Protein backbone atom coordinates (compact mmCIF):
# COMPACT_ATOMS: atom_id res chain seq x y z
CA UNK A 1 0.00 0.00 0.00
CA UNK A 2 1.22 3.51 -0.82
CA UNK A 3 0.57 6.73 1.03
CA UNK A 4 -0.11 9.81 -1.08
CA UNK A 5 0.82 12.91 0.89
CA UNK A 6 -1.09 16.08 -0.10
CA UNK A 7 0.75 19.36 0.61
CA UNK A 8 0.30 22.32 -1.74
CA UNK A 9 -1.77 20.39 -4.30
CA UNK A 10 -5.18 20.20 -2.67
CA UNK A 11 -7.20 18.69 -5.51
CA UNK A 12 -8.11 15.25 -6.84
CA UNK A 13 -8.03 16.10 -10.54
CA UNK A 14 -4.92 16.64 -12.66
CA UNK A 15 -2.66 15.89 -9.71
CA UNK A 16 0.70 14.50 -10.93
CA UNK A 17 1.84 12.70 -7.77
CA UNK A 18 -1.58 11.22 -7.04
CA UNK A 19 -1.87 10.08 -10.65
CA UNK A 20 1.49 8.31 -10.51
CA UNK A 21 0.67 6.66 -7.19
CA UNK A 22 -2.67 5.35 -8.54
CA UNK A 23 -0.99 4.23 -11.77
CA UNK A 24 1.27 1.79 -9.90
CA UNK A 25 -1.80 -0.41 -9.43
CA UNK A 26 -1.16 -0.51 -5.67
CA UNK A 27 -3.78 0.62 -3.18
CA UNK A 28 -3.33 4.27 -2.26
CA UNK A 29 -4.23 5.93 1.03
CA UNK A 30 -4.22 9.77 0.90
CA UNK A 31 -2.93 11.72 3.90
CA UNK A 32 -2.59 15.36 4.94
CA UNK A 33 -0.50 16.68 7.83
CA UNK A 34 -1.21 19.98 9.56
CA UNK A 35 2.46 20.79 10.14
CA UNK A 36 3.14 22.18 13.62
CA UNK A 37 6.52 23.49 12.44
CA UNK A 38 4.59 25.94 10.24
CA UNK A 39 1.45 26.49 12.33
CA UNK A 40 3.31 27.24 15.57
CA UNK A 41 4.98 30.23 13.94
CA UNK A 42 1.71 31.93 12.98
CA UNK A 43 0.80 34.63 15.47
CA UNK A 44 -2.73 35.24 14.18
CA UNK A 45 -4.98 32.48 15.47
CA UNK A 46 -7.64 33.49 12.92
CA UNK A 47 -5.23 33.06 10.02
CA UNK A 48 -7.23 33.02 6.79
CA UNK A 49 -4.74 30.69 5.05
CA UNK A 50 -5.17 28.03 7.72
CA UNK A 51 -8.94 28.39 7.42
CA UNK A 52 -8.76 28.06 3.63
CA UNK A 53 -6.57 24.95 3.86
CA UNK A 54 -8.96 23.54 6.45
CA UNK A 55 -11.96 24.03 4.18
CA UNK A 56 -10.11 22.57 1.19
CA UNK A 57 -9.10 19.53 3.25
CA UNK A 58 -12.67 19.06 4.47
CA UNK A 59 -13.86 19.05 0.84
CA UNK A 60 -11.17 16.63 -0.28
CA UNK A 61 -12.01 14.28 2.56
CA UNK A 62 -15.72 14.34 1.69
CA UNK A 63 -14.98 13.57 -1.96
CA UNK A 64 -12.65 10.71 -1.01
CA UNK A 65 -15.22 9.29 1.39
CA UNK A 66 -17.79 9.28 -1.41
CA UNK A 67 -15.36 7.00 -3.26
CA UNK A 68 -15.29 4.62 -0.26
CA UNK A 69 -11.83 5.78 0.83
CA UNK A 70 -10.73 8.57 3.16
CA UNK A 71 -8.18 11.28 3.79
CA UNK A 72 -6.15 10.63 6.92
CA UNK A 73 -5.62 14.03 8.52
CA UNK A 74 -3.03 14.35 11.29
CA UNK A 75 -1.63 17.28 13.27
CA UNK A 76 2.06 17.26 14.25
CA UNK A 77 5.64 17.32 13.02
CA UNK A 78 5.70 15.51 9.66
CA UNK A 79 8.53 13.07 10.50
CA UNK A 80 6.78 12.11 13.77
CA UNK A 81 3.42 11.64 12.06
CA UNK A 82 5.01 9.53 9.33
CA UNK A 83 6.72 7.33 11.94
CA UNK A 84 3.30 6.69 13.52
CA UNK A 85 1.72 5.88 10.17
CA UNK A 86 4.47 3.38 9.38
CA UNK A 87 3.52 1.54 12.56
CA UNK A 88 -0.22 1.70 11.87
CA UNK A 89 -0.21 0.66 8.21
CA UNK A 90 1.74 -1.69 5.94
CA UNK A 91 3.30 1.13 3.95
CA UNK A 92 5.43 0.30 0.89
CA UNK A 93 6.25 3.88 -0.03
CA UNK A 94 5.18 7.51 0.00
CA UNK A 95 4.32 9.52 -3.11
CA UNK A 96 4.00 13.28 -3.09
CA UNK A 97 4.50 16.44 -5.18
CA UNK A 98 7.58 18.60 -4.91
CA UNK A 99 7.66 21.81 -2.91
CA UNK A 100 10.66 24.07 -3.63
CA UNK A 101 10.70 26.39 -0.62
CA UNK A 102 13.80 26.08 1.57
CA UNK A 103 11.87 24.82 4.62
CA UNK A 104 9.96 22.25 2.55
CA UNK A 105 13.15 20.95 0.99
CA UNK A 106 14.74 20.43 4.40
CA UNK A 107 11.62 18.70 5.70
CA UNK A 108 11.56 16.37 2.70
CA UNK A 109 15.20 15.46 3.18
CA UNK A 110 14.38 14.44 6.75
CA UNK A 111 11.50 12.31 5.53
CA UNK A 112 13.72 10.72 2.92
CA UNK A 113 16.30 9.88 5.58
CA UNK A 114 13.59 8.40 7.78
CA UNK A 115 12.41 6.09 4.99
CA UNK A 116 15.91 4.99 4.00
CA UNK A 117 16.38 2.48 6.81
CA UNK A 118 13.18 0.46 6.13
CA UNK A 119 14.07 0.95 2.46
CA UNK A 120 10.80 2.55 1.48
CA UNK A 121 10.28 4.69 -1.59
CA UNK A 122 9.82 8.43 -1.20
CA UNK A 123 8.92 9.58 -4.68
CA UNK A 124 8.32 13.22 -5.55
CA UNK A 125 6.82 14.71 -8.70
CA UNK A 126 6.67 18.04 -10.43
CA UNK A 127 3.15 19.39 -10.12
CA UNK A 128 2.90 23.05 -9.10
CA UNK A 129 4.88 24.46 -12.03
CA UNK A 130 5.32 23.77 -15.74
CA UNK A 131 9.12 23.91 -15.47
CA UNK A 132 11.05 23.36 -12.27
CA UNK A 133 14.54 23.49 -10.81
CA UNK A 134 17.08 23.28 -13.66
CA UNK A 135 14.73 22.57 -16.54
CA UNK A 136 15.13 26.08 -17.94
CA UNK A 137 18.80 27.08 -18.04
CA UNK A 138 20.79 29.54 -20.12
CA UNK A 139 22.97 28.31 -22.99
CA UNK A 140 25.92 28.21 -20.62
CA UNK A 141 23.99 25.88 -18.31
CA UNK A 142 23.45 28.35 -15.49
CA UNK A 143 20.17 29.51 -13.94
CA UNK A 144 18.67 32.64 -15.46
CA UNK A 145 18.79 35.75 -13.32
CA UNK A 146 16.98 37.93 -15.84
CA UNK A 147 13.32 37.43 -16.68
CA UNK A 148 13.15 38.17 -20.44
CA UNK A 149 15.59 35.50 -21.66
CA UNK A 150 14.12 33.07 -19.09
CA UNK A 151 10.66 33.71 -20.55
CA UNK A 152 11.90 33.13 -24.12
CA UNK A 153 13.49 29.80 -23.22
CA UNK A 154 10.42 28.84 -21.16
CA UNK A 155 8.13 29.48 -24.14
CA UNK A 156 10.39 27.61 -26.55
CA UNK A 157 10.57 24.60 -24.22
CA UNK A 158 6.81 24.66 -23.77
CA UNK A 159 6.23 24.65 -27.53
CA UNK A 160 8.42 21.59 -27.84
CA UNK A 161 6.76 19.72 -25.02
CA UNK A 162 3.29 20.85 -23.97
CA UNK A 163 2.36 20.05 -20.38
CA UNK A 164 -0.09 17.15 -20.63
CA UNK A 165 -2.55 16.81 -17.75
CA UNK A 166 -2.41 13.90 -15.28
CA UNK A 167 -5.91 12.41 -15.18
CA UNK A 168 -5.73 11.27 -11.55
CA UNK A 169 -9.52 11.54 -11.36
CA UNK A 170 -9.86 8.55 -13.73
CA UNK A 171 -8.14 6.09 -11.40
CA UNK A 172 -10.06 6.42 -8.15
CA UNK A 173 -10.74 2.69 -8.11
CA UNK A 174 -7.17 2.31 -6.81
CA UNK A 175 -7.88 4.30 -3.66
CA UNK A 176 -7.68 2.15 -0.53
CA UNK A 177 -11.15 1.26 0.81
CA UNK A 178 -11.26 2.69 4.28
CA UNK A 179 -13.74 3.57 7.00
CA UNK A 180 -14.32 7.27 7.62
CA UNK A 181 -11.68 8.89 9.80
CA UNK A 182 -11.91 11.82 12.24
CA UNK A 183 -10.85 15.33 11.28
CA UNK A 184 -9.18 17.41 14.02
CA UNK A 185 -11.09 20.65 14.52
CA UNK A 186 -9.50 24.05 13.92
CA UNK A 187 -9.91 24.75 17.65
CA UNK A 188 -8.06 21.54 18.58
CA UNK A 189 -5.14 22.90 16.59
CA UNK A 190 -5.38 26.26 18.36
CA UNK A 191 -7.08 28.19 15.52
CA UNK A 192 -10.45 29.83 14.95
CA UNK A 193 -12.39 30.36 11.72
CA UNK A 194 -11.13 33.50 9.97
CA UNK A 195 -13.16 36.59 9.12
CA UNK A 196 -11.54 36.81 5.69
CA UNK A 197 -12.81 34.51 2.91
CA UNK A 198 -10.64 33.34 0.00
CA UNK A 199 -12.58 34.20 -3.16
CA UNK A 200 -12.89 31.72 -6.02
CA UNK A 201 -10.74 32.58 -9.03
CA UNK A 202 -12.39 34.37 -11.94
CA UNK A 203 -11.08 32.72 -15.08
CA UNK A 204 -13.92 33.83 -17.36
CA UNK A 205 -12.95 34.45 -20.97
CA UNK A 206 -13.86 38.13 -20.85
CA UNK A 207 -11.51 38.71 -17.87
CA UNK A 208 -8.61 37.19 -19.78
CA UNK A 209 -9.49 39.00 -23.02
CA UNK A 210 -9.57 42.37 -21.24
CA UNK A 211 -6.58 41.58 -19.05
CA UNK A 212 -3.92 43.38 -21.06
CA UNK A 213 -5.89 46.64 -21.07
CA UNK A 214 -7.23 46.65 -17.55
CA UNK A 215 -4.81 44.72 -15.34
CA UNK A 216 -3.16 47.87 -13.99
CA UNK A 217 -6.35 49.52 -12.79
CA UNK A 218 -6.98 48.65 -9.16
CA UNK A 219 -10.50 50.10 -9.13
CA UNK A 220 -11.64 47.34 -11.50
CA UNK A 221 -11.98 43.71 -10.57
CA UNK A 222 -9.89 42.92 -13.62
CA UNK A 223 -7.40 40.27 -12.52
CA UNK A 224 -8.17 36.60 -11.92
CA UNK A 225 -7.50 36.21 -8.17
CA UNK A 226 -5.88 32.91 -9.01
CA UNK A 227 -2.86 33.35 -6.73
CA UNK A 228 -4.05 31.61 -3.52
CA UNK A 229 -5.38 28.75 -5.64
CA UNK A 230 -2.01 28.23 -7.29
CA UNK A 231 -0.40 28.53 -3.87
CA UNK A 232 -2.45 25.71 -2.39
CA UNK A 233 -3.07 23.79 -5.60
CA UNK A 234 -6.86 24.05 -5.65
CA UNK A 235 -6.38 24.95 -9.34
CA UNK A 236 -3.88 23.12 -11.56
CA UNK A 237 -1.20 25.28 -13.17
CA UNK A 238 -1.51 23.19 -16.35
CA UNK A 239 -5.16 24.23 -16.69
CA UNK A 240 -4.21 27.86 -16.09
CA UNK A 241 -1.50 27.82 -18.75
CA UNK A 242 -3.86 26.27 -21.31
CA UNK A 243 -6.34 29.07 -20.67
CA UNK A 244 -3.55 31.61 -21.05
CA UNK A 245 -2.52 30.13 -24.39
CA UNK A 246 -6.07 30.45 -25.66
CA UNK A 247 -6.87 33.90 -24.35
CA UNK A 248 -4.00 36.10 -23.20
CA UNK A 249 -0.26 36.15 -23.74
CA UNK A 250 0.10 38.99 -21.21
CA UNK A 251 -1.49 36.81 -18.56
CA UNK A 252 0.76 33.89 -19.56
CA UNK A 253 3.75 36.14 -18.92
CA UNK A 254 2.57 36.68 -15.35
CA UNK A 255 2.39 32.93 -14.81
CA UNK A 256 5.95 32.76 -16.15
CA UNK A 257 7.08 35.43 -13.64
CA UNK A 258 5.83 33.07 -10.93
CA UNK A 259 8.03 30.26 -12.24
CA UNK A 260 10.96 32.62 -12.78
CA UNK A 261 10.89 33.56 -9.09
CA UNK A 262 10.47 29.93 -8.03
CA UNK A 263 13.59 28.82 -9.88
CA UNK A 264 15.49 31.84 -8.51
CA UNK A 265 14.69 30.95 -4.90
CA UNK A 266 15.43 27.29 -5.65
CA UNK A 267 18.92 28.10 -6.97
CA UNK A 268 19.63 30.97 -4.58
CA UNK A 269 17.88 30.08 -1.30
CA UNK A 270 19.79 32.71 0.69
CA UNK A 271 18.03 35.41 -1.36
CA UNK A 272 15.11 34.97 1.06
CA UNK A 273 17.29 36.56 3.75
CA UNK A 274 19.67 38.89 2.00
CA UNK A 275 19.73 41.21 -0.96
CA UNK A 276 20.46 39.32 -4.14
CA UNK A 277 22.89 41.97 -5.39
CA UNK A 278 25.93 42.04 -3.04
CA UNK A 279 26.41 45.77 -3.64
CA UNK A 280 23.14 46.47 -1.83
CA UNK A 281 23.76 44.37 1.26
CA UNK A 282 24.90 47.35 3.33
CA UNK A 283 22.34 50.06 2.76
CA UNK A 284 22.04 52.27 5.85
CA UNK A 285 18.29 51.76 6.35
CA UNK A 286 16.53 54.25 8.59
CA UNK A 287 14.15 51.56 9.91
CA UNK A 288 12.01 54.00 11.89
CA UNK A 289 9.46 51.92 13.86
CA UNK A 290 6.85 54.66 13.99
CA UNK A 291 7.09 55.23 10.23
CA UNK A 292 6.72 51.49 9.67
CA UNK A 293 3.59 51.42 11.83
CA UNK A 294 1.99 54.21 9.81
CA UNK A 295 2.73 52.30 6.62
CA UNK A 296 1.24 49.09 8.03
CA UNK A 297 -1.94 50.88 9.09
CA UNK A 298 -2.35 52.84 5.86
CA UNK A 299 -1.90 56.27 7.47
CA UNK A 300 0.99 57.70 5.46
CA UNK A 301 -0.94 60.57 3.87
CA UNK A 302 -0.23 59.10 0.41
CA UNK A 303 -3.67 57.92 -0.66
CA UNK A 304 -2.72 55.10 -3.03
CA UNK A 305 -0.31 53.65 -0.46
CA UNK A 306 -2.93 53.93 2.26
CA UNK A 307 -5.69 52.41 0.12
CA UNK A 308 -3.44 49.45 -0.70
CA UNK A 309 -2.44 48.79 2.90
CA UNK A 310 -6.03 49.02 4.06
CA UNK A 311 -7.15 46.65 1.30
CA UNK A 312 -4.46 44.22 2.44
CA UNK A 313 -5.38 44.50 6.11
CA UNK A 314 -9.07 43.89 5.53
CA UNK A 315 -9.06 41.36 2.67
CA UNK A 316 -5.66 39.64 2.56
CA UNK A 317 -5.34 40.83 -1.05
CA UNK A 318 -3.77 43.85 -2.71
CA UNK A 319 -3.79 44.67 -6.40
CA UNK A 320 -0.40 44.05 -8.06
CA UNK A 321 0.09 47.64 -9.23
CA UNK A 322 -0.56 48.87 -5.69
CA UNK A 323 1.76 46.23 -4.20
CA UNK A 324 4.52 47.77 -6.30
CA UNK A 325 3.65 51.29 -5.14
CA UNK A 326 3.49 50.47 -1.41
CA UNK A 327 6.70 48.44 -1.62
CA UNK A 328 8.57 51.23 -3.37
CA UNK A 329 7.23 53.75 -0.85
CA UNK A 330 8.35 51.71 2.16
CA UNK A 331 11.81 50.97 0.85
CA UNK A 332 12.67 54.16 -1.01
CA UNK A 333 10.60 56.95 0.56
CA UNK A 334 10.87 55.68 4.13
CA UNK A 335 14.21 53.87 3.70
CA UNK A 336 12.93 50.83 5.56
CA UNK A 337 14.56 47.45 4.92
CA UNK A 338 12.63 45.46 2.28
CA UNK A 339 12.71 42.48 4.65
CA UNK A 340 10.35 44.30 7.04
CA UNK A 341 7.83 44.76 4.25
CA UNK A 342 8.31 41.22 3.00
CA UNK A 343 7.60 39.88 6.50
CA UNK A 344 4.46 42.03 6.86
CA UNK A 345 3.13 40.79 3.51
CA UNK A 346 3.98 37.21 4.52
CA UNK A 347 1.77 37.58 7.57
CA UNK A 348 -1.16 39.15 5.73
CA UNK A 349 -1.36 37.89 2.12
CA UNK A 350 -3.78 35.07 1.34
CA UNK A 351 -1.54 34.27 -1.62
CA UNK A 352 1.71 34.52 0.31
CA UNK A 353 4.36 32.52 -1.50
CA UNK A 354 7.96 32.91 -0.43
CA UNK A 355 9.47 32.91 -3.94
CA UNK A 356 7.04 35.49 -5.39
CA UNK A 357 7.05 37.65 -2.30
CA UNK A 358 10.82 37.79 -1.88
CA UNK A 359 11.34 38.14 -5.64
CA UNK A 360 8.88 41.00 -6.00
CA UNK A 361 10.10 42.81 -2.89
CA UNK A 362 13.66 42.63 -4.13
CA UNK A 363 12.46 43.82 -7.53
CA UNK A 364 10.79 46.85 -5.96
CA UNK A 365 13.74 47.54 -3.67
CA UNK A 366 16.14 47.42 -6.62
CA UNK A 367 18.23 44.80 -4.82
CA UNK A 368 17.04 41.76 -6.79
CA UNK A 369 18.41 39.61 -9.59
CA UNK A 370 16.32 41.36 -12.27
CA UNK A 371 15.20 44.47 -10.48
CA UNK A 372 13.92 47.94 -11.04
CA UNK A 373 17.07 50.19 -11.25
CA UNK A 374 17.65 51.68 -7.78
CA UNK A 375 17.31 55.26 -9.01
CA UNK A 376 13.91 54.67 -10.62
CA UNK A 377 11.57 55.61 -7.82
CA UNK A 378 7.80 55.63 -8.14
CA UNK A 379 6.22 59.01 -7.58
CA UNK A 380 3.08 58.08 -5.59
CA UNK A 381 1.09 61.06 -6.97
CA UNK A 382 1.91 60.20 -10.58
CA UNK A 383 0.85 56.62 -9.93
CA UNK A 384 -2.56 57.93 -8.83
CA UNK A 385 -2.86 60.02 -12.00
CA UNK A 386 -1.98 57.05 -14.17
CA UNK A 387 -3.90 54.27 -12.50
CA UNK A 388 -6.65 55.70 -10.28
CA UNK A 389 -7.39 59.07 -11.83
CA UNK A 390 -10.99 59.26 -10.62
CA UNK A 391 -9.91 58.15 -7.10
CA UNK A 392 -12.41 55.30 -7.21
CA UNK A 393 -10.06 52.76 -5.62
CA UNK A 394 -8.74 55.29 -3.14
CA UNK A 395 -12.21 56.29 -1.94
CA UNK A 396 -13.23 52.65 -1.58
CA UNK A 397 -10.52 52.07 1.03
CA UNK A 398 -9.88 55.58 2.40
CA UNK A 399 -13.31 57.12 2.95
CA UNK A 400 -11.87 60.17 4.74
CA UNK A 401 -9.66 61.04 1.74
CA UNK A 402 -10.12 64.69 0.84
CA UNK A 403 -11.42 65.66 4.31
CA UNK A 404 -9.55 67.24 7.23
CA UNK A 405 -9.49 63.84 8.93
CA UNK A 406 -7.03 62.55 6.32
CA UNK A 407 -3.35 62.90 7.42
CA UNK A 408 -0.83 65.15 5.68
CA UNK A 409 1.87 63.34 3.66
CA UNK A 410 4.38 61.95 6.16
CA UNK A 411 7.39 62.82 3.95
CA UNK A 412 8.15 65.16 1.09
CA UNK A 413 8.56 62.78 -1.82
CA UNK A 414 11.27 64.76 -3.67
CA UNK A 415 13.44 64.95 -0.53
CA UNK A 416 12.85 61.24 0.23
CA UNK A 417 13.77 60.36 -3.33
CA UNK A 418 17.12 62.15 -3.14
CA UNK A 419 17.78 60.64 0.28
CA UNK A 420 17.17 57.12 -1.06
CA UNK A 421 19.40 57.60 -4.08
CA UNK A 422 22.17 58.90 -1.83
CA UNK A 423 21.83 55.90 0.52
CA UNK A 424 21.96 53.43 -2.38
CA UNK A 425 24.97 55.21 -3.91
CA UNK A 426 26.77 55.07 -0.58
CA UNK A 427 26.13 51.32 -0.34
CA UNK A 428 27.57 50.83 -3.83
CA UNK A 429 30.67 52.85 -2.93
CA UNK A 430 31.10 50.87 0.30
CA UNK A 431 30.83 47.56 -1.54
CA UNK A 432 33.39 48.72 -4.10
CA UNK A 433 35.78 49.38 -1.19
C1 LIG B 1 5.76 43.48 -3.32
C2 LIG B 1 5.00 42.35 -3.98
C3 LIG B 1 4.79 41.16 -3.30
C4 LIG B 1 4.11 40.08 -3.90
N1 LIG B 1 3.90 38.92 -3.18
C5 LIG B 1 3.28 37.87 -3.77
C6 LIG B 1 3.06 36.66 -3.06
O1 LIG B 1 3.44 36.49 -1.89
N2 LIG B 1 2.40 35.65 -3.70
C7 LIG B 1 1.97 35.77 -5.00
O2 LIG B 1 1.37 34.82 -5.52
N3 LIG B 1 2.19 36.90 -5.70
C8 LIG B 1 2.82 37.95 -5.13
N4 LIG B 1 3.00 39.12 -5.83
C9 LIG B 1 2.67 39.14 -7.27
C10 LIG B 1 1.27 39.66 -7.67
O3 LIG B 1 1.00 40.86 -7.03
C11 LIG B 1 0.16 38.65 -7.35
O4 LIG B 1 0.48 37.37 -7.84
C12 LIG B 1 -1.15 39.09 -8.00
O5 LIG B 1 -1.50 40.38 -7.59
C13 LIG B 1 -2.25 38.11 -7.63
O6 LIG B 1 -3.47 38.52 -8.13
P1 LIG B 1 -4.18 37.73 -9.32
O7 LIG B 1 -4.19 36.25 -9.01
O8 LIG B 1 -5.50 38.37 -9.56
O9 LIG B 1 -3.17 37.98 -10.51
P2 LIG B 1 -3.31 37.96 -12.10
O10 LIG B 1 -2.93 39.30 -12.57
O11 LIG B 1 -4.60 37.39 -12.57
O12 LIG B 1 -2.09 37.00 -12.52
C14 LIG B 1 -2.23 35.58 -12.64
C15 LIG B 1 -1.21 34.85 -11.81
O13 LIG B 1 0.10 35.16 -12.28
C16 LIG B 1 1.01 35.14 -11.17
N5 LIG B 1 1.60 36.49 -11.05
C17 LIG B 1 1.06 37.66 -11.43
N6 LIG B 1 1.92 38.67 -11.20
C18 LIG B 1 3.02 38.12 -10.66
C19 LIG B 1 4.26 38.64 -10.19
N7 LIG B 1 4.56 39.93 -10.26
N8 LIG B 1 5.15 37.78 -9.65
C20 LIG B 1 4.88 36.45 -9.57
N9 LIG B 1 3.73 35.90 -10.00
C21 LIG B 1 2.83 36.73 -10.54
C22 LIG B 1 0.19 34.83 -9.94
O14 LIG B 1 0.26 33.43 -9.73
C23 LIG B 1 -1.22 35.24 -10.36
O15 LIG B 1 -2.24 34.55 -9.67
C24 LIG B 1 3.67 40.21 -5.23
C25 LIG B 1 3.89 41.41 -5.92
C26 LIG B 1 4.55 42.47 -5.30
C27 LIG B 1 4.79 43.73 -6.08
From TrEMBL:
Similarity section: Belongs to the DNA photolyase family.
Gene3D superfamilies named among the record's database cross-references: 1.25.40.80, DNA Cyclobutane Dipyrimidine Photolyase, subunit A, domain 3, HUPs
Molecular function GO terms recorded: deoxyribodipyrimidine photo-lyase activity; DNA binding; FAD binding
Cofactor binding description: Binds 1 FAD per subunit.
Binding site for FAD: 211, 223-227, 251, 254-261
PROSITE patterns: DNA_PHOTOLYASES_1_1, DNA_PHOTOLYASES_1_2, PHR_CRY_ALPHA_BETA
An individual GO BP term: response to light stimulus
Chain ranges of the Photolyase/cryptochrome alpha/beta domain: 1-130
Domain of life per record: Bacteria
UniProt xrefs under Pfam families: DNA_photolyase, FAD_binding_7
Co-factor requirement: FAD; (6R)-5,10-methylene-5,6,7,8-tetrahydrofolate
Protein name as catalogued: Deoxyribodipyrimidine photo-lyase
PANTHER family (alphabetical): CRYPTOCHROME (PTHR11455), CRYPTOCHROME CIRCADIAN CLOCK 5 ISOFORM X1 (PTHR11455:SF9)
Keyword terms: Chromophore, FAD, Flavoprotein, Lyase
Site, as annotated: Electron transfer via tryptophanyl radical: 285, 338, 361
Organism per entry: Pontibacter diazotrophicus
Amino acid sequence: MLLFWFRRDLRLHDNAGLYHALETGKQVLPIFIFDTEILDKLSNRRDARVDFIYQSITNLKKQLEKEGSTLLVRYGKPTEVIKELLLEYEVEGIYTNRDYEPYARERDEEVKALLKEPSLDFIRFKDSVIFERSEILSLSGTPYKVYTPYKKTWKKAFKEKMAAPFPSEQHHDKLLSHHKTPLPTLQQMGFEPADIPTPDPNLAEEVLHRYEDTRNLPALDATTRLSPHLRFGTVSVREAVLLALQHSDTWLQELIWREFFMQLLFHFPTSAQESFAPKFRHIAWRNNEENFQRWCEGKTGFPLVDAGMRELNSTGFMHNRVRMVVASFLVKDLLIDWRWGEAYFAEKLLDYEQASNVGNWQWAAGTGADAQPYFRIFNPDNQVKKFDKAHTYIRRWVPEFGTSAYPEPMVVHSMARDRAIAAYKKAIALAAG
